[in-house]
Structure formats: structure tokens, C-alpha cells
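Batch manifest line 345
LIGAND: 3,4-dihydroxyphenylalanine
JOB: complex structure
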Amino acid sequence: MEDKILKIKENALSEIEKASNSKELDEVKNKYLSRQSELNTLKKSLKDIEPSLRPKIGALTNEVSKFLEEKINTRHNEFYKKELDEKLKSEKIDVTLEGTYNPTGCVHPLTQTINEIVEIFEHLGFSIIENRLSPEVEVEKYNFDMLNVPQEHPARDVQDTYYCYGADNVVLRSHTSNAQVREMLNTKPPIKIISPGRVYRNEQVSARKNNFFHQVEGLYIDKGVTFAHLKGVLNEFISQYFGSARPTRFRNSFFPFTEPSAEIDVQCIVCHGKGCPTCSGSGWLEILGSGMVDPNVLRDAGVDPDVYSGFAFGMGVERLAMLKYAIDDIRLFFNNDERFLKQFN
Ligand code: DAH
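JOB STATUS: finished
ARTIFACT:
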């Protein structure tokens, strides 16, 4: 029995010696010190040997287990240190290496501007109408006829409006005012809506003009709505959007669908009113058209002009963004140049 134990010790020692890494050492440990190990089986069979021999053999097995355990632990610490050193060496990080660039997207400046405009009007009690009431591909009836635009009006000219090839009287809408007509046909007053969207015009593309751009249309119809309401709402919008410091003016104008009509100008950001090429020398830039909805338009859309009145407006989103951020070329919005877009992050 004693010999057997000493033989186990000897074998274990030589295997501990032979192990060349911590993984191999773990296997040795498992073989000699686990519950299924030979030593442990011997311990369990102590009860079967002669009682007088038990204490000696018992003590010897314990001593050998303890001895082996210590040996293994010492060896293990050596391996651990060595392996850690190797790992640290091989996984060394070069902090001077260039990092990985993960570009993040940002909301397009025009979308940001639309969101801002919409939020201001929402606080003034306007709601946004559904997309189906504001289609970009539109019949002439809603883009022109029902807005009191005469047949011979120059805006209908193919030079100004895109007509859909092969479809009679179908255009790419030239303004968001189609939304007014559709909303009036769809709901009974009171109506207090805005409708942002894209519009198309057959323009020569330049720093000031693109052949598509964005507008936000507004319509407020109720009993007793007057020009004072129009001025109040639009002045409030302008002071919230630009801050009250920016000079603005109401200017008399004409639109077939409003009477009276007015345009709002904002002082040119480039020349501060002195006159420059950006504002064609006038010192002012137009940002929106507006007016009291023409009784003909109300009547055609089924709203009784003797009971109801209202005002409408249409503002240019690109213009508003250009004025606020001092952008001098409308094409920048559509070129998808990251250097430009990133500035609005
Ligand atoms: N639709 C006009 C345009 O695109 C802008 C406009 C003017 C809209 C007067 C309106 C309005 O609703 O009442 O130039």
C-alpha cells in the first residue's frame, strides 16, 4: 500500500515536471487530485484495510495529496506568469495607429427646417394634413382650376410647369396649394392646417433656383377670420423662426387664389438691406406668399363665402433655410456633399 502511494507520487511528480503549459498541468491535476483520482480511491478504501495500519496510510495519502497540490500550484503560477507575459506581448496595442472611422448620419438641413416650421405652427394650433391630400403628381384641376388660376395664366405654360407625358391634364404640382383645395373638399370648416412637401417648376437651375424645391402650405378657415389674423399668425411665425431681430416687411401682391394678397420679405442676409446680386439689388428676399382666400376658391370647394372666410400662405423652405444659415447657393441642398451636410449635425 505504502509503495503504491509512493509510486503514484513519483509518477505525478514526473508528469508535473513534463507539463509544458497550464493546460497540460490542468490535465495532470485532474488525473491525480480529482475525486476520481487513484489517491482519492485509495482514501475511500481505507476502511477495508487493517485498522492498525489505517492512521499511517491515511496520513501518507493526505501528505502526498497536499504535497502534489503545492507542487502543481507552484508550477501553475510559473506558467500563469509566463503565459500572461506572452499574451501581453502579442496583444500589445499600438495607440498611435489610426482609429476606425464610423461616420454617423444626420438629419438633412431641409428636413430640419421643415420640422422647425411645423413645430412652430403646431404650437399655433395648426395640424399637418395627410399625404394623400397633398400629392406631388396632381391633376390640373387641383393645381390650377380650383385655385382660380385662369386657363391662359402663364404659370400653366409648359415652360413653367412639368406636364406628365401621355397623361391628360396631369402635372407635377407647381406649388403645395393643391393641398388647400383637397382639404376643403375633404373636411368641413373650421380648418386650420399646414402641409409641407415638394414642388416642381421648369426653372433654369442656378444658385437661386432649382427645378424642384419645398414649400409649407397653410390654410385657416373659420367664421370671422380677417387679414389681422393672417398678419398676427405670420408675424408670430417669423419672430419665432428668425428671432425678432431680423427686419421683415409685408408687401402688397397678387395671387389668383387670394384677395387681397401679400408677400413677406426678409432683409437680405448677404448685404443687410444695402442691395446686392443675391437680392437683385432690392435689399429684401421674399419668403412667402399669402392672402385672404378668394371667395371663388371657397365656393368651388363647397365652403360658403358668406359664412366663412380664411387666409392661406405658402412659404419656401429652401429660402427660409438659406436665410437662417446664410447659405448662398440652393444647389448645396441637393448635391449630397458631406462637407456641407455635416455642418447641420
Ligand atoms: N402658391 C404660391 C406660390 O407657390 C404661394 C402662395 C401664395 C400660397 C398665396 C398661398 C397663398 O396659399 O395664399 O408661389
